[in-house]
Amino acid sequence: DRWQGLVCHDANNREPSGRLRLSVPQPDPGPDIAMLKRFMADLPNPGTLEQLKREAQGILSPDVFDGARFEFNKTLSPKFALNHNVFLGSAQMPASYEFGANFGDERVLIASRVDMGGRLNGRINAQFGESFAARLQAQASPESPGQMQSLKADLDYKGSTCCAGATYMGGGLLGANLMQSITPWLAVGGEGFYHTQKEVKGGAVAARAQWGHKGEHVATAKAGSFGNVELSYQRKVSDKVGLATEMQYYHNQFCNFGVGYEFRLRQATFKGLIQSDTTCSASLEERDASGTLPAPFRRPSLFSPAGADQPKH
């Protein structure tokens, strides 16, 4: 009776030596564990912490510059392409030209760009399986021969309900970040960094909420250990119209607020931004995909920026 439920007294449970085998029943995970697994399977991937406010940032960052710029892209093969950027210059900045070359497939992307001053920018993105990816960015210039002017390396992990990453920047800056979905519409996360040479450390916590029938509302919040707070909100009014707002507060330094809008037309995109420091900016980007231009210069982009900075009183 003492072994009832643990030992089966039949010949099938006897070892060759004649001894009985113990059969210990496995615990039942119960309905709560199964329900939790189904709930976690329905959670979306929140994206990386670096892209916390990607929807609002796309509207609140019009490509504004002084002068005129032309971009020409030429695809030589499915994996190789060239691009030419011509900046006509202005009263404050001289004219310039940049040449770029890109190589990429499903796993690797290599992009580089060099200007007339000999400054070279390059980046490499590599995908390792479905979950891991690595990114490397570097910049070299003739002013610093034999060494990188800047260097940044990132290692990202993408799970079904979370994203994590580690960062190294030239000079001894180490960082790590994590974003985790806790409900179908809410994700939380944080980041931390440490400078090995200056012995400075810090961190931040963040939250992202997305709701609506098609996820047209996105709100984010981020607070850092140095007294900085960032809030953003984006609403997708329609497939062609988007609105966004953002507030940035740095303790004992400044507080900035901005409102932006975006209109997407068939072959053009118009963006505008109004900020609390009395700065107004707008840009119009028009793409010509009709093929009426010569073959080497098809699919160009023409940018028409505008900006106004009113004096403060």
UniProtKB/TrEMBL annotation:
Matches recorded under InterPro entries: Porin_dom_sf (IPR023614), Porin_Euk/Tom40 (IPR027246), Tom40 (IPR037930)
GO molecular function: protein transmembrane transporter activity
Protein name: Uncharacterized protein
Pfam families per UniProt: Porin_3
Family assignment from sequence similarity: Belongs to the Tom40 family.
Cellular component, GO, one term: mitochondrial outer membrane
Gene3D superfamilies xref list: Porin
Gene Ontology biological-process entries: protein import into mitochondrial matrix
Predominant place of localization: mitochondrion
Membrane topology: Multi-pass membrane protein
Cell compartments where the protein resides: Mitochondrion outer membrane
Domain of life of the native organism: Eukaryota
Keywords (A to Z) from UniProt: Membrane, Mitochondrion, Mitochondrion outer membrane, Protein transport, Transmembrane, Transmembrane beta strand, Transport
Region feature Disordered, mapped onto this chain: 285-313
